């Protein structure tokens, strides 16, 4: 009998959790009647509301409910990693607690994996209804850029919601880097992925934890984690400017020799100095970003710290 683990990161989800629990209980009952064993792992990512209380009450009523509770908020990436480390199923799903990842898709996803042709079933939003236009546009540009300059293969509109085989989850767990960008890691490890498109669903209750600025920083993080191209920008700027200055030098020398007209212009000089200074600082900043990542990586701190849990089996990480 195949076991399916459903990993659900939760951060202050007291409003949405009851809806989610209802839906996932119904789907789990259906799956069990079709011969699957179910394990639902809630990861309480340092919630400050009643989320943990709710999860514990579910665990008391339903033996399929397991939980890990972090000592503070470590972020969704750490919560997903913890879920993968502790899940013991043959198939492992990861989904949000706010019903934006419809639990009703799970049976179909399990059927696809059962056929054995694919190692994972991932979901992709085909519409971004209900999202600000500028956010959708930026998201699309981000996907274009990161696919172009890195070997992460990320579909536009890809959600984190996916179901994977044990083989694939083990591969994800083996990528134990501290700076995690799961969307990129899923693509980077390879394997055969079936994409399920679906219409965007609005959050059932509660509020999103992401604002535009946080998403922007997340996007920059993704690019830095998966691409070395920004690092080479400094070299390209340098080559371009050297070539330009050489042409200018020849021009000025010839001009001086031919018409003996020294170039005047304090304004243009200052503009050039500020321009070059700006580019130098920009490139230094990029290097700083990479160095900061190396710094965090070399400290080898744990991805998360667990305050309590009700899982008997040990973590794989
Ligand atoms: N989440 C989390 N830790 C965080 C932020 C979010 O575990 O620091 C969880 C959250 O509870 C939800 C999922 O990650 O289940 C997605 O979060 P959200 O709905 O805010 O993101 P959005 O769907 O708007 O991208
Ligand atoms: Mg959401």
UniProtKB/TrEMBL annotation:
Q: Does the keyword Protease apply?
A: no
Q: Which SUPFAM superfamilies does this UniProt record tie to the protein? A: Nucleotide-diphospho-sugar transferases
Question: Which Gene3D superfamilies does the record match to this protein?
Answer: Spore Coat Polysaccharide Biosynthesis Protein SpsA, Chain A (3.90.550.10)
What range(s) does the Glycosyltransferase 2-like domain occupy?
5-171
Q: Which residues cross the membrane?
A: 233-254, 266-292
Entry GO CC = plasma membrane
UniProt KW keywords? Membrane, Transmembrane, Transmembrane helix
The question of whether DNA-binding is a record keyword is answered with no
Q: Which domain of life is it from?
A: Bacteria
The name this protein carries in UniProt is Glycosyltransferase family 2 protein
Q: Which organism is it from?
A: Candidatus Ruthenibacterium merdavium
């Amino acid at each position: 009998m195949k076991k399916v683990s459903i990993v659900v990161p939760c951060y202050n989800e007291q409003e949405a959790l009851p809806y989610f629990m209802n839906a996932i209980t119904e789907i789990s009952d259906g799956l069990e009647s079709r011969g699957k064993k179910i394990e639902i792992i809630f990861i309480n990512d340092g919630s400050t509301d009643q989320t943990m209380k709710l999860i514990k009450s579910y665990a008391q009523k339903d033996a399929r409910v397991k939980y890990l509770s972090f000592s503070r908020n470590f972020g969704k990436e750490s919560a997903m990693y913890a879920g993968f480390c502790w899940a013991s199923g043959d198939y492992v799903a990861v989904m949000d607690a706010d019903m934006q990842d419809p639990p009703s898709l799970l049976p179909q996803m399990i059927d696809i994996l059962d056929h054995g042709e694919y190692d994972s079933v991932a979901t992709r939003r085909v519409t971004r209804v209900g999202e600000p236009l500028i956010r959708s546009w930026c998201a699309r540009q981000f996907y274009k850029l990161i696919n172009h300059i890195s070997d992460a293969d990320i579909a536009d509109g890809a959600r984190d919601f996916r179901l994977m085989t044990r083989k694939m989850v083990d591969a994800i767990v083996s990528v134990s880097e501290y700076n995690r960008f799961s969307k990129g890691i899923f693509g980077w490890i390879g394997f055969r992925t079936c994409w399920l498109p679906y219409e965007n669903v609005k959050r059932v209750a509660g509020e999103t934890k992401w604002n535009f600025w946080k998403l922007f920083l997340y996007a920059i993080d993704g690019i830095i984690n998966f691409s070395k191209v920004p690092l080479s920008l400094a070299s390209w700027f340098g080559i371009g400017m050297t070539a330009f200055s050489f042409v200018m030098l020849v021009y000025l020398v010839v001009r001086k020799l031919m018409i003996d007209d020294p170039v005047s212009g304090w304004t243009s000089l200052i503009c050039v100095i500020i321009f070059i200074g700006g580019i130098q600082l920009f490139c230094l900043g990029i290097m700083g970003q990479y160095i900061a990542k190396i710094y965090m990586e070399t400290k080898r701190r744990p991805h998360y710290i667990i305050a309590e849990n009700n899982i008997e089996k040990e973590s794989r990480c």
